[in-house]
Amino acid sequence: MDKNSMNLIVERVLETIAAQSGASPKPAEEKPAEARAEAENPSLVRKPSTGGAVPPPKDAPVFEDITSKQAKAYPTIDNAADFDSVVRMKGKTPARIGVGRSGPRLKTQTLLTLRADHAAARDAVFKDVDEKLLEQLGLFSVKTCCKDKNEFLTRPDLGRAFDNETIEKIKSECKKDIDVQLILSDGLSSTPIEANAAKILPALEEGLKDKGYSVGTNFFVKFGRVACEDAICEALGAKVVCILIGERPGLATAESMSAYIAYKATVGMPESRRTVVSNIHSAGIPAVEAGAYIADVIEMIMNAKASGVELQK
User: Fold this and answer.
1) Taking the model in full, what pTM does it have?
2) Is 265 helix (H, G, I), strand (E, B) or coil?
3) Cβ distance 241 to 232 under 8 Å?
4) Do 25 and 139 have their domain in common?
5) In DSSP terms, which residues pair with 219 in a beta bridge?
6) Which residue range forms the structural domain that includes residue 40?
7) Does residue 23 fall inside a structural domain?
8) Is residue 299 a part of any domain in this protein?
9) How many structural domains compose the chain?
10) What is the pLDDT along the chain (313 residues), one digit of tens a residue?
11) 159 and 304 in one domain?
12) Apex CA 145: angle with CA 185 and CA 214, to 5°?
């Protein structure tokens, strides 16, 4: 019990004693409305701290969507010694810090958010890219040797290869002997394509053309793994190939895209020959900014005539 509550009880006891004895009690000093409210409901009292105040339960916002960025950025930990510092830390990372607990368990909101993020990650893996998006981007589509999603997930080798008919289609539809060939692929997550493709492709193409490079015919690869770009590079005789592909989704985001870039890629080459730009999503490297940056990276690769670890030599 705090001091204000104790004083209120003492005053009421004195009033009762005075009424029973017939004496007029000494009028109590009028308290401000805020002090009276705090005395009647101690849970509203803000506890002092070195860096910031602990918000009382009534001040905590209510979010309609607990998976929104605003909801995830708001700490749910109780009695934080420095609430403002927790807010700043949560603003620096998507990690689940400052969430508190209920006894030995996660709070209900934390558990529900975790399950919702897990569901979004599963959806990103099993959902196909919307055909309307590919039409809007003007991309034709080809498929690797995988027959379906299950085979794609269990046979990575088939996701790196094309049959002869598909290779011939790529050759007939695309420009040949160009500087840079850009490819879009679902990879292990379709959501990054829908979230980033419409922004990153124009920025990347414009950046490359401004630098004087010829850009091939963009297209989409369904059920593609990173190394499928090697067969495409060989078929089209491109100097540099760049595949923009959906990455394996996590509980922090299901929208992360990466760019894998290689100079004169060949089938079976070591992975160390690839240069990677990763973490392309709204909470990482924004798509437009990533497009401009990748164009600069490709310029470095073209000048050095090397990619991957060879580019660092």
Assistant:
1) 0.69
2) coil
3) yes
4) no
5) 140, 183
6) 1-45
7) yes
8) yes
9) 2
10) 566 666 666 677 667 666 766 655 455 454 544 444 445 444 434 444 444 444 544 566 777 787 777 888 888 888 888 888 888 888 888 788 888 888 888 888 888 888 887 777 777 676 778 899 999 999 999 999 999 988 988 999 999 999 999 999 999 999 999 999 999 999 888 889 999 999 999 999 999 999 999 999 999 999 999 999 999 999 999 999 999 999 877 666 778 899 999 999 999 999 999 999 999 998 889 999 999 999 999 999 999 999 999 998 6
11) yes
12) 45
Is 281:266 a contact under the CB 8 Å cutoff? no
Cα gap 91→88, rounded to integer Å: 5
| Contact (Cβ atoms closer than 8 angstroms) between residue 240 and residue 179 | yes
Whether 164 and 277 share a structural domain: yes
Question: Is residue 226 in some structural domain?
Answer: yes
To which residue do tokens 């009033």 refer? 15
> Same domain, yes or no, for 160 and 266?
yes
DSSP state of 64: S
Same domain, 140 and 26: no
In whole angstroms, what is the distance from residue 36 CA to residue 236 CA?
79
- Residue 285, domain CATH: 3.40.50.11240
Please enumerate, as own/partner, the contacts of 99-104 that have beta carbons within 8 Å and a separation of 24 or more: 99/75, 100/75, 100/76
CA atoms within 13 A of residue 173's CA, in its CB half-sphere: 17
Q: Is residue 229 situated within a structural domain?
A: yes
